[in-house]
Design goal:
Structural class: mainly beta
Helix content: 10-25%
Strand content: 35-45%
Number of helices: 1
Number of strands: 9
Distance between the termini: 67 Å
Radius of gyration: 18 Å
Largest sheet: 5 strands, mixed
């Protein structure tokens, strides 16, 4: 194999390794001021199964995707995810802050829409 094809193969392997590794810039990201809650995605799981949010006021949720796979945080009024309350942007290897509109007190479901087995409960209190 000549030098140029070797370099192309090495570059492709490096890109594959970087793309599949977890963390990226998200691993060092810190929540900005004014955040009400934080959640991470790591190893195709959320780091918590319960989010606690205040009722009746807009909320800022800081989300770190520490995986090489795309994830988001979506909140639904039902466990079957048919009644959408909030759907956050899908991100890969990065952090984002979601601005969630005011939610009434109650129990909700959150999940990753890309990986629906990643889920938990949102407790919205008064």
């Amino acid at each position: 194999m000549t030098t140029r094809p070797r370099l192309i193969v090495l570059a492709a392997l490096l890109a594959l390794l970087v793309g599949c590794s977890g963390g990226g810039a998200a691993a060092s990201a810190s929540p900005p001021s004014g955040v009400d809650a934080t959640i991470d995605a790591k190893d195709l799981k959320f780091t918590t199964s319960t989010l606690t949010l205040p009722a009746g006021k807009p909320v800022r949720l800081f989300f770190r995707n520490l995986d090489g796979a795309p994830h988001n945080v979506a909140i639904y009024a039902d466990a079957g995810a048919t009644q959408k309350v909030f759907v956050g942007e899908t991100v890969t290897n990065q952090a984002t802050t979601y601005d969630i509109p005011a939610i009434a007190a109650g129990s909700y479901t959150f999940r990753c829409d890309v990986h629906p087995d990643m889920k938990g409960t949102v407790a919205v209190g008064g």
